[in-house]
């Protein structure tokens, strides 16, 4: 009987470890919007700070608009991401962000273009279409 209890505990522990690994994979694959790089892809990034009143307005709209992780603009896939400034100061500094919110298009060729337009999904899409 002790052996069976020990095996059940081992299976339970193994199942828990696998669930944690799978959960982490799903989070990183589908829900983590913090960018690590912009290599070989057009990526539209919202740099924001949780304490910024303007960011509090635009962040939920951008998050909803970009929830799939990319948008299709004129037949081109543009990846979308969000970078929180206090959690990622090195990314904000590397991007040259001076204020919040800042939206940058990181082009696949390495060029960075700062967004200028209406902070709405329609505004982002129109601007991206002209910037690509």
- Give me the side-by-side strand order of the main sheet: 2-3-1-4-5
Mean pLDDT equals: 85
Q: Would you count the extended β strands for me? A: 5
Largest sheet descriptor: 5 strands, mixed
Brief descriptors of the model:
132 residues, alpha+beta, Glutaredoxin, 4 helices, 20% strand
Description of the structure:
This protein is of the alpha+beta class and 132 residues long. It has 2 domains: 32 residues; 89 residues, Glutaredoxin (3-Layer(aba) Sandwich), CATH 3.40.30.10. 46% of the residues lie in helices and 20% in strands. It has a 5-stranded mixed beta sheet. The protein is elongated.
Task: Please render the helix and strand layout as text.
Elements: H1 2-31, E1 43-48, H2 53-65, E2 70-73, E3 76-84, H3 89-95, E4 102-106, E5 112-114, H4 121-131
Parallel strand pairs: 1-3
Antiparallel strand pairs: 1-4, 2-3, 4-5
Tell me briefly what this model is.
The chain is of the alpha+beta class.
């Amino acid at each position: 009987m002790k052996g069976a209890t020990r095996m059940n505990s081992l299976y339970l522990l193994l199942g828990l470890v696998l669930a944690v690994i799978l959960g982490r994979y799903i989070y990183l694959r589908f829900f983590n919007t913090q960018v690590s790089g912009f290599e070989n892809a057009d990526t539209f990034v919202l740099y924001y700070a949780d304490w910024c009143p303007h960011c509090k307005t635009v962040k939920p709209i951008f998050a909803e608009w970009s929830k799939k992780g990319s948008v299709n603009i004129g037949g081109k896939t543009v990846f979308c991401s969000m970078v929180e400034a206090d959690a990622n100061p090195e990314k904000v500094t590397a991007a040259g962000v001076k204020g919040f919110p800042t939206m940058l298009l990181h082009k696949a060729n390495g060029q960075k273009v700062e967004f200028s337009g209406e902070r709405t999904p329609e505004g982002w899409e129109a601007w991206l279409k002209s910037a690509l």
